[in-house]
Each structure stands twice: as C-alpha cells, then as structure tokens.
Write a structure and sequence with these properties.
Blueprint lengths: L1 H20 L2 H25 E14 L5 E16 L4 E8 L5 E12 L2 E9 L21 H6 L15 E11 L4 E8 L14 E8 L5 E13 L15 E14 L3 E12 L2 E15 L2 E11 L7 E14 L2 E12 L5 E11 L1
Antiparallel strand pairs: 1-2, 1-16, 2-3, 3-4, 4-5, 5-6, 6-7, 7-8, 8-9, 9-10, 10-11, 11-12, 12-13, 13-14, 14-15, 15-16
C-alpha cells in the first residue's frame, strides 16, 4: 500500500511539473486539440448510433374472470441501432417492463442489392401482423387472437409459452424487382427468446409478399419444425411436458393502404401434433382526419377444430395522434365464446415514442 501511494505521488509530481513547464500558448493548443477530438467522437456517435424508445400505458376493464379493473403499463421499450460500416449494422431492443427482458439482438449485413443476412434474436416473419411494431398496430391488445396464439406472442399457448413472436436463428431477406417482391427465408431454434434449443431439430421459416401497387400487398408465410412442450394445454391434452411434437404454421393475407382507409386481413392455420387450429381477422382504420382514426376489427380463433374451441372478438374504437408516433386510444371489445360466458372489455391507452 505504501509503495502504491509513493508511486502515485511521484506520478502526480511529474505530471504537475510537466504542466507547469508548458507555456500558456501550449496549454491552450492542447485544450483545443482535446476539444476537437471530443467533438469528432460525439459527431461520429451521432452519425453511427440511433437511439429510440416508446412506452404504452393505460387502463383495462374486463367483466370476465371476476372483472379485471386495472391501470397497467404494457411496454417500456428501448432500442439502439449502430452502424458499423455502410453495409454492416447491429440492433438491440430491451423491454424494461415486468422485470426486464432482452427482446432483440441481431446483426445485419447487406450482401448484394436485394439480399441481406441477419443473425441473432429477432421477430420471426410469420404472418403479416406479427412483425409489425406495437406502435403502429391498431388494437390495444396489439395483435389478433390467432396471431397471439399461433405466433406465441403472449402466454396464450401453454405448449410454447410466451416468445413475443421472436426466436434465435439466421435469415436471408430483401426486396426484388424494384420492391415488387419482399421475401424472408431462414432457420431458427424454435424455442423462443433467450432460450437454447431443447431438441436437435430446427424450424424453417419463409415468407413472401407481392406488392403489385403502392396501396396493395398480398402474400403468405410458413413455419415448420418440431417443438418441445414446456407446459400442458387444454387444446392439446395428449401432449405432456417435455414431449417432442410436430409443429407447423402457415398464413395468407393482404394489406390495403389508402388515404381514407387502412385495411389488413389474414387467415392463419396451425397443426400441433394431431391438433389443428385456425383463425382469421380483418382490421380496418378509417382516417377521418389527419390525426383521428376510427378502428374496427373482426377477430376469430379456433384452438382445436375437432373440439370447436372457438372465440370471436368484435372490436370498435378510436385513436388520436397528438404528436408524430404518439397517440391516445379507446376501444370496446365484445367476446363471443363457445361454452363460456360472453364478456365485455373497455380499454384506454396512451403511447409516447421518440
């Protein structure tokens, strides 16, 4: 300890002596050089690192399940995108809500015009709806029942748990023929976010969208592979925890984007072992004025087509964009459930984004 203090004292003495030996002009030049260097570093960071984020919070009343009546925070998201070179980038996304979860971490490399590669943890390109950001989806519950269930966005399928629609893997993607075609093809673990694969099988993913005009896109997607059950499901009682089972997903849909109306519709299907499921949704946003929209949605899901485990949601609401990418929303949902009591839900939400 004494030696450390002695060395520290000698070093400070030398530095002080050197500084005192400098002329005022030399000191000023040194300060200017340091200032120039700092400015260059700051400007470089501004050019190469883009920081983003958003939060969604609101209120929910649901007369099902002993009447939920809660103020809640749905998401607190932070994102960072760094440009390593002109063709190479890194993306990071983290959700601070609920104890914190790493959502995405991947690197992209632009290989050729119309061909890029992605490696890491990212949104699986299954369905039109799932890859969309919650900041642009019209429903406060964010996605349709079928998308939530078949893409495992929330804890709706106990066999898979909540994956937020993300997984770890490798993907090739791009736009071809002057953006006439948009494609994604790749391979993923199939076990969801922040998890190693629980078997030796990988899931294969693919999607294709055709954009014949600026206002119309049509296409479909598929995911096929084998999963490992992490829970028990009423919709698939034959599968036990730890079982390997064949898991397939497919979808086909269309998007219409015009000044008066935005419209998205999709049919989704799935097969887990021997159990088949399907769903359909149609969501429209009528742009009454530049900042005000009327929202309506028809949303159907059947978790087991043999047992008829059906639920249909009818949604109506409004949203007001009070600042770019910031909005307030209010919605009413009527749920028609087979063999269960129907329910009503009222929701309100505020979204802020930077």
């Amino acid at each position: 300890m004494k030696r450390f203090l002695l060395l520290t004292f000698i070093s400070l003495t030398i530095c002080t002596s050197f500084a005192s030996a400098q002329t005022p002009e030399e000191v000023n030049n040194q300060k200017e050089d340091i200032g120039t260097t700092v400015n260059k570093v700051v400007n470089t960071l501004k050019e190469r690192i883009h920081l983003m984020g958003y939060a969604q919070l609101g209120y929910t009343y649901n007369d099902a399940n002993d009447a939920d009546n809660d103020f809640d925070i749905k998401r607190i998201i932070f994102m960072a995108e760094g440009k390593i070179t002109e063709d190479w980038s890194l993306f990071f996304m983290y959700n601070f809500n609920g104890g914190g979860t790493l959502l995405e971490m991947y690197t992209d490399y632009h290989i050729l015009p119309g061909l890029s590669a992605r490696l890491g943890q990212f949104k699986v390109p299954y369905t039109i709806e799932s890859p969309l950001s919650p900041t642009v989806v019209e429903l406060i519950d964010c996605y349709s029942q079928a998308t939530n269930y078949l893409a495992a966005i929330g804890p709706h399928d106990p066999l898979r748990g909540s994956t937020t629609g993300r997984d770890l893997g490798f993907m090739l993607y791009g736009n071809l023929f002057k953006d006439y075609l948009t494609y994604n093809v790749g391979v993923i673990n199939g076990q969801g976010i922040n998890n190693k694969d629980k078997n030796s099988n990988k899931d294969f993913i693919g999607s294709l969208m055709v954009n014949p005009t600026k206002w119309l896109s049509v296409g479909g997607s598929v995911v096929t592979g084998k999963g490992v059950a992490i829970g028990l499901s009423d919709a698939n009682p034959d599968l036990q925890i730890g079982d390997n089972y064949k898991r397939d997903r497919w979808s086909v849909g269309a998007v219409v984007e015009t000044k008066p109306v935005s419209f998205r519709t999709e049919y989704l299907g799935g097969k887990d072992g021997k159990v088949k499921s399907d769903g359909y949704y149609a969501t429209a946003s009528v742009h009454v004025c530049p900042k005000f929209d009327i929202v309506a949605s028809y949303d159907y899901l059947n978790k087991n087509k043999d047992l008829g485990m059906k639920q249909t949601n009818y949604v109506a609401g409004v949203q007001y964009w009070f600042y770019p990418r910031c909005r307030v929303q209010a919605q009413y949902t009527y749920s028609d459930k087979k063999d269960l009591d129907n329910s009503n839900m009222i929701q309100a939400q505020v979204q802020v984004r930077f």
